[in-house]
Amino acid sequence: MILSFLVTALLPFGLMTVFSYQTYFGGLLHRVSEYSQEVVGRMARELDEYFLDIEALLTKEQDFYLDQLIKLVENNDFNNRKYVFRIWEDLNNLQRVKPDVEELSIIFPNGRRLSSYGLYTLDYERYLRSGCGL
Question: 0.70 cut: is pTM over it?
Answer without folding.
Answer: no
